[in-house]
Amino acid sequence: xxxxxxxxxxxxxxxxxxxxxxxxxxxxxxxxxxxxxxxxxxxxxxxxxxxxxxxxxxxxxxxxxxxxxxxxxxxxxxxxxxxxxxxxxxxxxxxxxxxxxxxxxxxxxxxxxxxxxxxxxxxxxxxxxxxxxxxxxxxxxxxxxxxxxxxxxxxxxxxxxxxxxxxxxxxxxxxxxxxxxxxxxxxxxxxxxxxxxxxxxxxxxxxxxxxxxxxxxxxxxxxxxxxxxxxxxxxxxxxxxxxxxxxxxxxxxxxxxxxxxxxxxxxxxxxxxxxxxxxxxxxxxxxxxxxxxxxxxxxxxxxxxxxxxxxxxxxxxxxxxxxxxxxxxxxxxxxxxxxxxxxxxxxxxxxxxxxxxxxxxxxxxxxxxxxxxxxxxxxxxxxxxxxxxxxxxxxxxxxxxxxxxxxxxxxxxxxxxxxxxxxxxxxxxxxxxxxxxxxxxxxxxxxxxxxxxxxxxxxxxxxxxxxxxxxxxxxxxxxxxxxxxxxxxxxxxxxxxxxxxxxxxxxxxxxxxxxxxxxxxxxxxxxxxxxxxxxxxxxxxxxxxxxxxxxxxxxxxxxxxxxxxxxxxxxxxxxxxxxxxxxxxxxxxxxxxxxxxxxxxxxxxxxxxxxxxxxxxxxxxxxxxxxxxxxxxxxxxxxxxxxxxxxxxxxxxxxxxxxxxxxxxxxxxxxxxxxxxxxx
Length: 680
Known about the structure:
Layout: E1 12-19, H1 27-43, E2 48-50, H2 68-84, E3 91-100, E4 103-112, E5 115-121, H3 133-136, E6 147-150, E7 153-156, E8 161-165, E9 172-177, H4 179-182, H5 187-193, E10 198-202, H6 211-225, E11 229-233, E12 250-254, E13 257-261, E14 270-277, H7 278-287, H8 289-297, H9 299-303, E15 306-310, H10 335-359, E16 365-368, H11 373-388, E17 396-400, H12 408-421, E18 424-427, H13 431-440, H14 454-475, E19 478-481, H15 485-490, E20 504-505, H16 512-524, H17 530-540, H18 561-565, H19 568-579, H20 585-596, H21 618-635, H22 637-640, H23 670-676
Parallel strand pairs: 1-2, 2-3, 8-15, 9-10, 10-11, 16-17, 16-19, 17-18, 19-20
Antiparallel strand pairs: 1-14, 3-4, 4-5, 6-7, 8-9, 11-12, 12-13
Helix pairs in contact: 1-2, 10-11, 10-16, 11-12, 11-16, 12-17, 13-14, 16-17, 19-20, 19-21, 20-21, 21-23
C-alpha cells in the first residue's frame, strides 16, 4: 500500500546537485568527497545526485589529463564510487576523463546500485577564449562503438542515452556536459522530445562577471522549451585558479521555475536539493501540441536514441514534500511579481471592455452593484475604462437592487463606492416585482409562509438581471457582468436570467482569491481617492453571501456562501490544479495538505490579516474537494457551455467553451469521486 504522505507516491522525485571540495589531479581526495556528498544525498532520499564535470580528476588539470598515472587513478576512483553506490538511494552522475578507443573522452558516468548504467561523452568541446578542450579530448561523435568494456562489464557508451526507470512512471533522464547546453541544438533537446523529463548537466564553467545570469537564463529557457526539469552543477572550491576562477554554481529548474540554487563562491562543499513534479511536466507536454508536433518532425532521429532501463528502488518510508506550494496559486507570492500581475489583470480587463464598447458604438455601461467583491472589482475596472476612453464616469449607470435579504452593510457599501467613484448611482427596490412574480407562480411566500426555496432565491436573481437588461435597452448601454471564475467552476450562479448572463463579463476568468488581491492592490497602489479606498476596504471585510434568504439579524446574513460550497481559498486551489494540470484528487489533496495544513508555515501574501490566516486538516480538505469535484464535473458544466464573452486574464485558464475548457454537460463525476476515497 502506498504512503499518501510521501512525495514518491505522487510522482515527485527528489534530486540533488552536489558541489564537492576538490584538489587538482588528486582522485583519491576527490572521490572521498564525492562519496561523502553522495551519502548525504542518499540520506535525503534523492533519486539523482549530480556532480560537476571531470569532478574525479578536476577540470583544471589541463595537460595532466594525458598522464597515465592520473588516468589510472581516475579508474580506481570510479571503482570505489561504484562499490559505494550499492546501498545508496540516488543515481549518481559523476564526471571523469576516460581513455577509450585510444582516445580521451570527457565523460559523465551514470552509476546506480553497484552498476554503471552508461557512459556519456561530451558532444561539443569548446576551443575558444579560455577553453582548449580539443587539446585534451575527443568529441562524442568521433566514437566508433556504442558499447565499451569498462571495469569488467560491457557498458552503453554515447551521447544518445536516455535512462528510464521501468517501475516509476515518467522518471526518465538524460545527461549532457557543460558546453552542450551552450550550443544552438543541445543534445538534451532531442532527449526531451524523446521522453526524458529530467535533463542534467555536469559542468565546470569558470566564472566571469555577468556569467551567472547567463547560466540562469540558459537553464531556465532549456527547461521551459523542453517542458522538463534541468539540473546544473558547476565546479567549485579547489579547482586551479592559475588563470581562472570558479563559483560553484548549481541550479535546479522545473519548466522555467527555479527550485533551488547554490551559494556562489562558497569555500565549502555544498549540496542543493529540490522535489521535481514529473506528472506536472507530463501534463504540460500532453497539452502542448507544438511540443508534440516537434516530436513528429524529428521522429526518425528520436527513434535512434537508446533507452537504458533500470529499476529504481523507491524509498519506502515517508519522504515529506520540501517544495513550497503556494496557498493561492492564482496570486504570486513575490510582492513585485504580484503587483505586476495585478496591473496586467486590470489592463486586460480594461482593454477588453474598451474594444467591446468601441465595436458596439456604446458609451454607457449598466452594472449591478451589490456591495460585494465581484461587482466592486468590475465597477472599478469600468471606471478605469471610462477614464481611458476619456468619457465621464457618469456614463456608468450603477444600480444597487435590494431584495428581501439585502443587508444594510452591503447596501451602504454599494452606495459609498458608487458615490466615491463618481458614477451615476441609483437604487431600485426589486421586492415589488419579485412579489408579483412569486404571486404569479403561486409561491407560498406570498401567503406569508417562510418558504425560502430555490425558486424564491432565483426570482430575486432573475429580477435583478431583468432590470439591468431593460435598463441597458432603455439607455442604449451594455450590461457589464460581475460573476467570477470561482463561481463558474462551482456553478454558483443563476442560469440564463440571473447573474450568469450579461453582454460582456470582464471577471469570468478571474478567481475570487485573485479578485480579493486585486482590490487590495487597488487600495495599496492608490488607484483612486481615499473615499474609494475606504469603501473597498469595507467590502473586503464583508462576509461573502448571496443575501437571498431573509434573517432576523440584518448585519449578519443567514446565508454564508462558503459554508455551502466551501472556502474559496480551498476551492480556488482545487480549481487551479484540476484545470491547469489535470491532477488526480489524491494528488491535489496531498498538495493542499502541504499548503494549508499549518497556518504557521509557508508564505502568506501581503494584506491577509493574522485572523484570516486559516488552516485545514486533511479531513476538511477531502470534504470540500468532494464538493468541488461533484459540482465541477457533474452538475455545473451546462452553465459554462453558454457563458457570455469575456477576456482570458490568467494562465490558470478560463472556463469558456471558446477557450481553455470544453466539456460535456452530462458527464459523470464517478472516477474523480472514486479516487477521493483513496485519501486517508
